[in-house]
UniProtKB/TrEMBL annotation:
Source organism superkingdom: Bacteria
GST N-terminal domain sequence ranges: 1-87
Name of the protein this chain belongs to: Glutathione S-transferase N-terminal domain-containing protein
PANTHER family: DISULFIDE-BOND OXIDOREDUCTASE YFCG, GLUTATHIONE S-TRANSFERASE-RELATED
Family as reported in the entry's similarity comment: Belongs to the GST superfamily.
Pfam families per the UniProt record, alphabetical: GST_C, GST_N
Ranges annotated as spanning the membrane: none
Domain GST C-terminal: 90-213
CDD domains: GST_C_YfcG_like, GST_N_Ure2p_like
Xref: InterPro entries: Glutathione-S-Trfase_C-like, Glutathione-S-Trfase_C_sf, Glutathione_S-Trfase, Glutathione_S-Trfase_N, GST_C, Thioredoxin-like_sf
Lineage, highest ranks first: Bacteria, Pseudomonadati, Pseudomonadota, Betaproteobacteria, Burkholderiales
Length: 232
């Protein structure tokens, strides 16, 4: 059984997508980040960065004590290795998959995240910041579109954790001010993943957990007002 500490963000969706695809038994433990539940001491023991998602594997391979893991990319890789699914088993294929997983973790996620912040949540419009992150999001979309333009269905040929990592960050493309018509190969990839039954189930689950996905002023102060004192 996997305990999944989860909220309905792109990084959270990555893990529900994997779990729905793999068939692993899992139990959702909602962490409402708009209410500050990510700062609860029990959660911080698993996720010291006070961010979702995190997991606890109650039955790790080889037995022993439960294993807690934070960071969505690390969780995807752990689950892929545990199940021997959605990561290539050969040296070259595995390394290609991990490169694209790290590309998402270091590029697409952070840049699109800043895009979301300055376009939607900043208290005042900052044209330089908006232009910077909208353009960088566009560049990253272009990188993935070019990679997919050789006719492959998924990032590494077969469906993998690289796709699960990237897809949720492309879902809000309209809010990121991206025109999918400019990225035809990416658009086909996006629709292919969107229509997978496991993806549909994962996103339906999100609707049942977060029934009022709004960010009010109090939530903004929790989400965007953190500094070193938050950790202490």
């Amino acid at each position: 059984m996997i305990d999944l500490y989860y909220w309905t963000t792109p990084n959270g969706h990555k893990i529900t997508m994997f779990l729905e695809e793999s068939g692993l038994d899992y139990n959702i433990k909602p962490i409402n980040i708009s209410k500050g539940e990510q700062f609860e001491p029990a959660f911080l023991k698993i996720a010291p960065n006070n961010r979702i998602p995190a997991i606890v594997d109650q039955s790790p391979s080889g037995g022993g004590e439960p294993i807690g893991i934070f960071e969505s990319g690390a969780i995807l890789l752990y689950l892929a290795d545990k199940t021997q699914q959605f990561v290539p088993q050969d040296l070259r294929g595995r390394n290609e998959c991990l490169q694209w997983l790290f590309w998402q973790m270091g590029g697409l996620g952070p840049m699109a995240g800043q895009n979301h912040h300055f376009v939607q949540y900043a208290p005042e419009s900052l044209p330089y910041a908006i232009d910077r992150y909208v353009k960088e999001t566009s560049r990253l979309y272009g990188v993935l579109n070019k990679h997919l333009s050789d006719g492959r269905e998924y990032i590494c040929g077969d469906y993998s954790i690289a796709d699960m990592a990237a897809y949720p960050w492309v879902v809000p493309h309209e809010r990121q001010r991206q025109d999918m018509g400019q990225f035809p190969a990416l658009a086909l990839w996006f629709e292919r993943i969107k229509n997978r039954p496991a993806t549909v189930r994962a996103y339906e689950l999100a609707k049942s957990i977060n029934t009022a996905p709004t960010v009010d002023q109090n939530a903004k102060s929790i989400l965007f007002g953190q500094d070193a004192k938050t950790v202490v």
